[in-house]
Amino acid sequence: MKKLTVIFTVISLTLAFSVLLSGCLVLPTIPTEPTSPPATEQPPADEPEPVTPSDEPEEPAEPAPIEDITWTLEAYGDRGSLKTVLGGTEITAEFKSAISTVIGSSGCNGYFAGYEIDSDRLTVIPPITATEMACFPPPIMDQEQEYLTILETTETFLIHNEKLIISCSANKEMVFVEKTTEEEIPPIEDIVWQLDAYGDRGSLKDLVEDTKITAELKSAEGQIAGSAGCNSYTVDYEIENNELTVTPPIAATMMLCFPQPVMEQEQEYFELLKAAETFLVHNDKLIISCSDNKEMVFIEEIPSIEDITWELEAYGDVGSLKDLVEDTNITAEFRSPEGRIVGSGGCNTYFVDYEIDNYELTIAPSISTTMMLCFPQPVMEQEQEYFELLKAAETFQVDDDRLIISCSGNRELVFIAP
After folding, report:
1. pLDDT of 56 higher than 60
2. The domain 70-178: what is its CATH number?
3. In the chain, where are the structural domains located?
4. Whose CB has fewer CB within 10 Å in the chain, the N or C terminal residue?
């Protein structure tokens, strides 16, 4: 009987457990003895997160800056066979960030153009605007044209070994070095400058025929004085580095000149002078940049060699000139009304036509002379040498009352005024 009771009890417990598992019956909770409340669980202390290398690639280094630096061209042309810049010339480029404009000298003329930089890409925006001076010898102009043509085709740049290398289309390249030496600004004061051209940069105009406009920046008075083509004038100025500030009003005489374009030109000149901003001296020319993209180009006033009788002092190869044969006298008078040189060749009198353009002197090829025969023989040989040199004249300068005529073949004639 006891055995059946145990079996019955086991079966009952099994059924109750099955019902509990099926969710149909909740068993009463068996009371337990009270215990002390569990300790409050503290959150775990913050642990530093492990540093793991980023899966993203690092940002590429910024390209070396090329802006607001004056760069000097060292070599240019076909990549792999670059040629150097002509001796005695300088080509520069400065990428001015504030105005997104590259400016500089192309070896003869000043130039400027817009540009854009995107990472290592460089785009120069045509057209390139330049002054319109002519320089000699001709290779200077050829080099300038080649440089400006390549500059318009820029594509990318990099700085390597402190040099700026600009790659251009058609496999061309330009290599610049930073212009580190601070050049002294050429003096422009206490020199009489003569206006050569003026107006909009890139399309300058010549002066009205038979007019002359001058400017002398007198350092002692701090005033510019000169002739505006009709009236004389004065105005105050200040120079700081290459900045030129002209302070109105301009004081001028009150003459009236004809024809009317003379007065209009004078007024234009005064307006440009008041708008002066910066200056530079390039190839012996004073270039004053004005507001609104205007410009004035001056040349140093050329001393007159005309209507003076000059006497030859020495002649021949530069650096080894020879004196005249004893008791001979060779002269030259540049007669402006006729455009003709007349004088003595040491034996015969002669005349020949000439032209002067700035400092350039051109002699007509045929020299007319009398037909005398002089002795001793060196007198005739000297005369022939003189005529040959005169026909080969190229340029002139006046230095300490001496007229020095440079001739082809590195030769010269040196005259003095009696």
Report:
1. no
2. 2.40.128.270
3. 70-178, 192-300, 309-416
4. N
DSSP 120: T
Strands (E) across 119-191 are located at 121-130, 154-160, 163-168, 172-178
d(CA 304, CA 288): 25
Hey, how many other C-beta atoms are within 10 angstroms of the C-beta on 270? 19
Strand (E) or helix (H) holding 225: strand 223-227
The predicted-structure confidence for 120-168, as pLDDT tens digits, reads as follows: 999 999 999 988 888 878 889 999 999 999 999 999 999 988 899 999 9
Q: Is the pTM of this model over 0.70?
A: no
Residue 1: strand, helix, or coil: coil
Can you give the length of the chain in residues? 418
Burial tier of 297 (Cβ tally within 10 Å: 0-12, 13-18, 19+): buried
Count the alpha carbons within 13 Å of 207 in the hemisphere toward its beta carbon: 21
Joined together, the tokens standing for residue 191 give 């020199």
Q: What are the tokens at 379?
A: 């007198």
Q: Which pairs from 241-246 meet CB under 8 Å and 24+ separation?
A: 241/185, 242/185, 242/278, 242/279, 242/280, 243/277, 243/278, 244/276, 244/277, 244/278, 244/279, 244/288, 245/276, 246/273, 246/274, 246/276
Start-to-end Cα distance in the chain: 168
- Give the whole-angstrom CA distance, residue 248 versus residue 237: 9
Question: How would CATH label the architecture of 309-416?
Answer: Beta Barrel (2.40)
Could you tell me which CATH number the domain at 192-300 has? 2.40.128.270
At 269, give phi and psi (nearest 5°).
Answer: -60, -45
% helix, strand, coil for the chain, step of 5: 15, 45, 40
Instruction: Judge whether 70-178 and 309-416 match in fold.
Output: yes
Give 328's pLDDT tier (boundaries 50, 70, 90). very high
Show the CA angle centred on residue 205, arms to residues 200 and 209, nearest 5°: 155
Phi, psi of 238, rounded to the nearest 5 degrees: -140, 145
Tokens read off for 201 = 């940069």
Contact predicate 297/109, CB 8 Å: no
Cβ atoms of 296 and 389 within 8 Å: the answer is no
- Of 321, 313, 211, 305, nearest to 263 (Cα)? 211
Helix segments in 67-213, DSSP class H:
138-151
d(CA 12, CA 249): 124
DSSP letter, residue 272: H
Instruction: Please report which residue ranges of 136-245 form alpha helices under DSSP H.
Output: 138-151
What is the Cα–Cα distance from 272 to 286, expressed in whole angstroms?
A: 14
CA dihedral over 268, 269, 275, 278, signed as positive or negative: positive
